[in-house]
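re: that chain from earlier
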Amino acid sequence: MTMTAAPSTDATASSDFENHPLQSVFAPKSVAVIGVTPTPDTVPYDIFHNILTSGYRGTVYPIAPGKRNICAVKAYRYVLDIEDDVDQAVIVFPANVVERALEQCGQKGIKSAIVISAGFREVGAKGLVREKRLVDICREYGISMIGPNCLGVINTDPKVQLNASFARKMPDEGRIAFLSQSGALCTAVLDYAREKGIGFSKFVSFGNKAGVTEIELFDYLHNDPQTDVILLYLEELRDGRGLIEAARRVTRGDNAKPILAIKSGRTPQGADAASSHTGSLAGEDPVCDAVFREAGIIRVASIEQLFNSAILYAYQPMPSGDRLAIVTNAGGPGVMATDAAVRVGLSIPRFNEDTTAKLKAALPATANVKNPVDVIGDARADRYGAAVQAVLDDPNVDQALVILTPQSMTDIDSIAKGVCQLHETASKPIACSFMGAADVGSGIHLLQKSHIPHYILPEWACEAMADVQRIRHWREQPIGDIEALDVDRATVESILSSADEGYLSEDRSLSIMGAYGLPVPAHRLCTTADQAVAAADQFGYPVVLRVISPQIVHKSEVHGVALDLASADAVRAAFDEMWRRVSELMPEAEITGLLVRPMIPDGYEVILGAKRDPSFGPTVMFGLGGIYVELFKDVTFGLAPLDRHTAARMVQQVKACRLLEGARGRVCSDIEGIQDCLVRVGQLINDFDRILELDVNPLIAGPMNKGNMVADVRIRLAGV
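^ sequence. v structure.
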């Protein structure tokens, strides 16, 4: 019997890719440009001319009412007049005509549309209504729409060669996909990349992203054989949760591809957000930072850094570690590079004895054979080549940085050619920094032609290497599963069913925490001093008194907290005094009672928070707590629900973790217990939509043998 092998994963992925809905966007067999004019240097003309002259392998049709031809190509009045099938439409009509043109595309059976035209949501309410009509048409006919208000789409694949944009020139073919919400930025990026010799696989300006968003583009590019790395410029997050889930699929697994992103813009916080620590600290930007990190998205600050890191990843092998060897002909830049490398988390290793011997044999006595290697200012190509080869062969080295300063005796082109030759057989990444401009220009050109990343400053090279290390570390991190926790949902449902909008009382908040397995102290709400004394006798002294009132959020401001009450007389006196003083300071406050609970032993104060973020949904916060949370803002965030690996990483990411681990010989705190609390807080806010914000501040982090304890908690609820 003949056995037939099952199709490979690669073959399946290839088949899925060829049948992907966005294939008609990137690889259409025919394109209709709707709204073409015969006037050069206008957007409609330039787009048609770009498609016509970029080497596009398909058929292009100009739709130009009233014109017989455009650029000697027969023109049509309407897209419906074209006799053959059409895969894609590029619409450049004025905004008020786009709806009618898109409707005809649907009737024609066109499956993708790039709407270049502006005049939609970006101009206000009227434009938004117009844009929604486009979305409805696309949904009715199954059209994948890029835009509106965009530059267009470019695919450099030699089998397609599509430049459906009004960019000035077709970029070179490369391994980098660039996605941008800003069309104006795209033109600048293309010019920048051309000067740097950077090529692209795909280049997409998606504008208002009314149809296809970065999420669908991630999904398509994940299996694109022409793409190795994805770059993203984003101005707004409409579906942050969807973006993160898509990014995790792209950046992990056998076919993993890194995503590097610039997220611009800041969202001002509403007045009510500042009512809790979590609300005031969980602005879009810090949440975005942390959540991107947990999705494997490398967030960068500038276009320069975006491409600095992308070219290193796209054109060099992945290093097996963070150990960097530096070869330079000038001591100062070598020291600067060393400082920069250490600052960004790279290590500068010692060479083994064999490497040191090779360097001593190849270099003059005045050279420095330690790392960084200084080949001395009069070094030529042979000396550079010997030094670079020696350090690349060292098992203690994972990557090399070659620095050159142009001196009178420096043969720049020969040195560049020598590095290029070494690069052809090297299994470790090489980056260069030929410092200067005019004098080193020809050498830089040679390096870029061989796809050796070049950086004007060695510090930039180190930053790019650090970003590649972040990619490597992300792929090595374990992927955890969200576990089913043993919690008491019924108790929480019962409490929330009778609760009004706003802050939940502390006693009920503690009950919710206890129902979800957080370590909550024994407590009792008392309305008389006798009840308070009875509770204290039961719990054991010393105890704490805390005022409970719907109108009082910050208890200490109205003397609503009494600590370390060590006897019945102390409890009775404190009870009467607190009730009196709070009533005088806030006569409008309705005092529900005073909460009695045992004093919690000393420990480090940390904060656990949760918030329903408008972009990312339920998120969890962790950091240094107590009075320091707003001062130091040493916090990080994660998406709820959390797996235990993510909770562990959150704890590790804050500086306060060093304290919890037992700084200066102190006892290590119950870090595993803190992680468990984070997982449970994440499950709580994920389970109950009415919870808008919660703060456990502080959670007292006790020693491992004693555990942690919730000292204070606030929960804010939405209306029913």
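DSSP finds 25 helices and 29 strands in the chain.
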